[in-house]
């Protein structure tokens, strides 16, 4: 596993406020990004999908439901 890979058992923790993994613990940021994304997605009935990225890390996709205009 590369240093930028996220262990599958740690993915859910990343959606909790102030959670950071690996080298991100010493960098900038508060660890709020994904918890905010999750709250916005929930408020709009959107879904979140998290999959490992080919070069390490994660790809997070937010899919909002279509609305009739």
TrEMBL record:
Q: Which residues form the Histidine kinase/HSP90-like ATPase domain?
A: 6-66
Topological type in the membrane: Multi-pass membrane protein
Q: Which domain of life is it from?
A: Bacteria
Q: What subcellular locations does the record give?
A: Membrane
| Catalysed reactions, as listed in the record | ATP + protein L-histidine = ADP + protein N-phospho-L-histidine
Q: Which GO terms describe its cellular component?
A: plasma membrane
User: What keywords is this UniProt entry annotated with?
Assistant: Kinase, Membrane, Phosphoprotein, Transferase, Two-component regulatory system
A Gene Ontology molecular function term for this protein is: protein histidine kinase activity
| Documented EC number(s) | 2.7.13.3
Name of this chain's protein: histidine kinase
Q: Which organism is it from?
A: Sinosporangium siamense
């Amino acid at each position: 596993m590369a240093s930028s890979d996220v262990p599958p058992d740690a993915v859910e923790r990343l959606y909790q406020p102030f959670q950071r993994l690996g080298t991100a613990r010493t960098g900038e940021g508060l660890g709020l990004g994904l918890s905010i994304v999750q709250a916005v997605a929930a408020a709009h009935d959107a879904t979140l999908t998290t999959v490992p990225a080919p070069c390490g890390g994660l790809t997070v996709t937010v899919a909002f439901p279509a609305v009739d205009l």
